[in-house]
Amino acid sequence: MNSTRRKNTIILGNRPCTVYFDPAPKYLLIQPTGEHEREHLDKEVEYIKSLTNTPSIFAAFEVDNWNKELSPWNAPPVFGKEPFGSYAGETLAYLEDTLIPEIIKRYSLKENIPVILGGYSLAGLFALWSAYTSDRFTAVAGVSPSVWFPRWLDFIAEHSPAAKNIYLSLGRKEEKNRNQTMAAVGDNIRRQYEMLKAMNLSATLEWNEGNHFTEPEIRTAKGFSWCINELTKENDT
């Protein structure tokens, strides 16, 4: 851990939240994390630091039921037997009403600090959905996002994102999936990128080597770093 960065775990609204913070942070980074990601957070945060010199505060909040809490609407099971719930709205409300205000208060941040929301897989879809649903986020990173989700293209065709900086990425092997629903991820993310560029937004689509399970913490760090660097460039011009 970098000598100038501190780390602690706090409880916000009954959710454990791991916070990494630099002195005088310029950005607040937020990521939904599941049990499978917690052990890799140190590596992810260190990699973010290696890609940007801008100080930030990073808050990873825990999600107990991945399919339920991060899904914007109900959908049938795609793998396994667990369906997708429709509680993304409640999770977004938690961020807006509890996590962000409490982090700002506890760490004496500026009220208008830019907030970057990012996530991997279904959390990446949640980040993108939040950009189209809320105006609280300055930038979002959808990293290997589940844009194969039923009716996703219909949703983004009917809405416009409030965030003006959007990072998308995918592994090159992810669309080579035997599951036909999940195999649509490649065409869908290309389509979303085209739509974002047509809106003249600051957007990028990065292709990574490997499948969905290849270096998720490195990919997520790259997404957050892109957002930080884009915002910093804009602020410097």
How does this structure look, described?
With 237 residues, this protein is of the alpha/beta class. It has a single domain, classed as Alpha/Beta hydrolase fold, catalytic domain (Rossmann fold). Helix content is 39%, strand content 22%. The protein has an eight-stranded mixed β-sheet, sandwiched between helices. Strand 3, helix 1 and strand 4 form a beta-alpha-beta unit. The longest helix is centred in the C-terminal third of the chain and has 21 residues. The protein is globular. The model has no long low-confidence stretch (mean pLDDT 95).
Spans of at least 5 consecutive residues whose pLDDT stays below 50 are none
Helix content: 25-40%
**What is the CA-based Rg, rounded?**
17 Å
Task: Tally the beta strands.
Answer: 8
Query: What form results from the Cα inertia axes?
Result: globular
- The CATH homologous superfamily is named Alpha/Beta hydrolase fold, catalytic domain
Q: List the secondary-structure elements in sequence, H or E.
A: EEEHEHHEHEHEHHEH
Class from secondary-structure proportions: alpha/beta
CATH architecture: 3-Layer(aba) Sandwich
Number of helices: 8
Tell me the count of domains: 1
| Strands ordered across the widest β-sheet | 1-2-4-3-5-6-7-8
- How many strands, what sense, and barrel or not for the largest sheet? 8 strands, mixed
Mean pLDDT figure: 95
